[in-house]
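Quick one, tokens below:
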């Protein structure tokens, strides 16, 4: 059983978990608003990294001043993982956001813990939990229902968006598996900061190659949205989720996470005019049920490990 927590800790931790989930999910709404004003995914990822990287540079400096150290080998491994887990994953995710709804994007990303566990079973000789397969069945059935709802018109763009976000989910799951192994030697703050800065450098190089040194936009509204995404949908919720886990534990995060996402879905319906027909709502229930089965059931240890990796992953594109 998860350890007992006081009512005050549960209230504060639950609020932090709900808020972090809502802010992370709000990334999609912010991106869609920016896309409507003419910026593309590459430019949006660049803005996110430009505005977020100073915060993580400050975190890196703070960790080093506190005496944190990393070997050249581990540092190189973290940089490679960061480029893979944040740069590649972000590019896929932000491309997919163009074609699918906020709800579908978030529900696909919620499959990440099942992929992490499956990788552990197939390649790291970890024990299988029967709840994993039940969770996968519910989660994937829910995503299929949602894809069918949005693909009703026959447009291939929904399938393209689903494939991109699915690829982002898989890539980030691989990142989490290997990041966990480095956490035994490197603290989560140092790992997150170094990985994010390496990914930022990769984004800058990517943009320079494909667009040169021209600014991605001169629209003040889009620049403002980029700042909002970096600060309120990236940096702030990463600290909130860390604080929430410290107060209530990873095993209690699931219900609050989905409550936060639910609030954001309401905002997406109001701001983006996204619809929620019956089959889409059924898909959300199935996908959410699959994820909650892991966090509320007998797979608590796996969920706690996942929560620990969430601290390391911080402001991931898979949040």
């Amino acid at each position: 059983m998860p350890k007992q927590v006081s009512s005050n800790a549960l209230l504060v931790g639950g609020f932090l978990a709900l808020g972090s989930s809502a802010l992370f999910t709000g990334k999609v709404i912010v991106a869609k608003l920016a896309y409507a004003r003419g910026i593309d995914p590459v430019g949006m990822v660049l803005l996110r990294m430009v505005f977020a990287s100073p915060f993580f540079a400050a975190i890196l400096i703070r960790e080093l001043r506190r005496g944190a150290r990393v070997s050249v080998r581990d540092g190189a491994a973290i940089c490679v993982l960061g480029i893979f887990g944040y740069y590649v994953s972000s590019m896929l995710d932000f491309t997919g956001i163009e074609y699918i709804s906020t709800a579908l994007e978030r529900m696909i990303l919620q499959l990440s813990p099942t992929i992490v566990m499956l990788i552990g079973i197939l390649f790291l000789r970890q024990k299988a939990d029967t709840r994993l397969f039940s969770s996968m069945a519910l989660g994937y059935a829910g995503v299929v229902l949602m894809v069918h709802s949005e693909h009703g018109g026959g447009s291939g763009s929904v399938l393209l968006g689903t494939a991109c976000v699915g690829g982002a989910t898989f890539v980030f799951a691989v990142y989490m598996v290997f990041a966990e192994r480095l956490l035994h030697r490197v603290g989560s703050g140092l790992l997150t900061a170094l990985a994010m800065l390496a990914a930022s450098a990769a984004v800058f190089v990517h943009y320079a190659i494909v667009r040169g040194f021209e600014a991605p936009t001169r629209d003040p509204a889009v620049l403002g949205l980029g700042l909002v995404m970096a600060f309120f949908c990236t940096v702030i919720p990463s600290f909130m989720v860390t604080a929430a886990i410290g107060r209530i534990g990873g095993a209690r995060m699931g219900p609050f996470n989905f409550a936060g996402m639910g609030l954001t879905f309401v905002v997406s319906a109001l701001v983006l005019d996204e619809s929620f027909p019956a089959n889409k709502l059924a898909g959300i229930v199935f996908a959410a049920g699959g994820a909650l089965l892991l966090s509320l059931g007998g797979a608590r240890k796996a969920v706690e490990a996942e929560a620990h990796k969430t601290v390391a992953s911080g402001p991931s594109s898979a949040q």
